[in-house]
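Hmm, what's this shape?
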Amino acid sequence: MTMVHQEGNAIADGTRAPWRIGTRGSLLALTQAGTVRDALIAAGQPAELVVIKTAGDLSSDPVQTIGVGVFTSALRDELAAGAIDIAVHSYKDLPTAQDPRFTIAAIPPREDPRDALVARDGLVLGELPAGAKIGTSAPRRAAQLRALGLGLDVVPLRGNLDTRLRKVSEGELDAVVVARAGLARIDRLDAVTEALEPVQMLSAPAQGALAVECRSDHAALVEILSGLDDAATRASVVAERSLLAELEAGCTAPIGALAEVVESLDDDGRIVDELSLRACAAAVDGSDVLRASVVGAPADAEQLGRALARELLDMGARELLATEPDDGSPTRAVSSPAPDLPNPSPMENSR
């Protein structure tokens, strides 16, 4: 007899049907969603993966062409329709606008958020000769690479991680820059020739973090998933994403941000946690990069992100982000700053 999945995960014979976790079908996406499935099973919650095709999987066009949220909208459609119970996203791919239908109930511990260089002959970035072809899918990476003034030929790149690495191994490119977290999750850190430090390249807001999402009206599941949440990762991601939201720029904009919860000493010599946030806004052609930083309490993560965004705007980020890239297509200019909003609780959607 076929068992019917019911609200609350209970079925007629008293057992529990698996929670259905929606994911893209790539190796990386399956691996990421698999960590959530395994964590739920370890907590006594049956779970299984459901593969969903997205528009991003069906197109080879650049992400900035096919649209922000291209890898997440199909999962959200299935979640809203009740075809799945949980969606697992690479957090950096989510649009910054809040969707009240959904709650990001958990942000598990983050992988190393740095970008990684994979280059021929084991070269590091400073050893690549002028004119070397280096591939990247992100305007943020392209802008910061050009700003280093190394004379590299930065070329657009799409495809899964294996495809990108193969372009180096087969000699089509001298190097590629990808997220280190992705390589770590598919056990390919052996391919990394250099992990790029933030002083060279700031990562995308929320890079290396997962967003575990469910419907906002499913209180029982929100509570279950909250057990997978990591407070330090959530504070860091909230700060980075709040900066992005305040700039009103999408996930493909040339903006880098990295927040970390670190230990510090207060005026009485007691150990306390502080949230350190660094950010940059760059012209796509690499002609200029604006940098700023702020330190504050993790509980103030959203306010810190928005305050740092306003500092970048005061420095001229709006005009800088409107610079036209080499291909002549304008980047999305940022708009006027948004008003202050309350700091979200762990059970609210992160902006």
Notes: Residues 1-7, 59-68, 327-351 have pLDDT under 50 and may be disordered. DSSP finds eleven helices and 13 strands in the chain. The first strand starts at residue 19 and ends at 23. The radius of gyration is 21 Å.
